[in-house]
Amino acid sequence: MRTLQLRWKKPANISSNTSLSFGPFNSTTQIRWKKPANTAQTRLENRTRDPNLDKLTAHYRRLKLILNLYDVVSARKRGPFLSVQSLSKWAPHAGINTITAGDLLRKYPHIFEVFTHPIKRNLCCKFREKFVILLNQEDDVVSQNEDENVMRIRKILMMSVNGTIHLHALRLLRTELGLPENFRDSIIIKYDEVFRMVDLEVVELIDRNDKDGSFWVAKVESWRKKEYTEKWLSEFEVKYAFPVHFPTGFKIEPGSREKLKNWQRLPYVKPYERELTYHLNPQTTETMEPSSRCDELMSRSAVGKRTFGGVERYEKRAVAIIHEVLSLTVEKSVPVERLAHFKKDLGIVVNIRELLLKHPGIFYISTKGIAEIVFLREAYSKGCLIEPNPIYDLRRNMLDLLLLGNRHTSELKTERKLKDEPKDMTDDENGWESREGDFVIPILGSFTDHEDNDNMN
Hints:
By secondary structure, the protein is α+β, with helices and mostly antiparallel strands. Helix content is 43%, strand content 12%.
């Protein structure tokens, strides 16, 4: 005898997320409720936003694209200008894909100057003199600050595990650290009494001993000293604390204040410490032998890790290292993905993105753009750096030219009228060169010679 088995088919109008009511045919069906996902991505999406830092990130992203375009245009050998038609071809190489060349020129008149070629009579453009002057001033300031550049590289090497750093990691943070483009030759090889090249891509600090003790002082130590002397707080409260500034509208969950207070008091291995007295509990201390390997230092606290907060101490050291690296940068901000290149050299084995999201009062990750940018929250107020420096001021002036848009264009018209005074000009590969006397014959003679070099199409 054959048995006929009937299968219930779900109606088409019922979605997969629709819950069915219990009945005689599904009374024994078990329903599993999914717990809400608590991953780094969900915490990043649900975090409290900082509109000032997000807006600043969006502005700097546009400025970065303009600077990339300047590098592409300045690398050409046909002069510091190009036709508008050529600009539409070169712009995608700089990452500008969402705007046409004409809209780009109309949107930023304080950065681009549009003019008619005197010979071919086609529209050409070039970067305005004011913008180019700011770029040259930045290069001059960077090249003149050799002592500060040596200090930054030396501090990073002193925080490293073995006293070595890969050059590709420093090369990725060259702009953020304010280093010159040829820092390998102009700084590392030049100061051979401080640095030594172990390999083609590895630099080592020759002497890790700080005689005067100035290099062993982290940036956060000055804040702790100020809190201790001015606010009359106890040393127990501020000795291992960090400045915490939550964004406006941040919702503090129940019990978070007590956890934060305990975390602030938790002792940890500071970034520049080598001879350590590591406190495992308030009653006993353990003095460690000098060692340059962070994993060996932290493994000594592996016993009773959960009981005495060994994991929390290790994470707090990683927070201190990232805090110090951000303090060494010019704008106190770094792309998150570039910090990952320092993990092995600085002995950070935890997930950096997870760690940054775990401490929203110290760091802020902005996602306004292609890359995620982490800011040191204590260094900014209303979207501006509290303690500016010359390089930051120059970059901010470039950003101001970008943000002007189509405002104050009457000043540009006045400058153009002054430049358009009758002059005897001939085309030159480096710009314009004035000639005295009859200029018709030189133009006709140079037109054939420079026809291939000045072809802008």
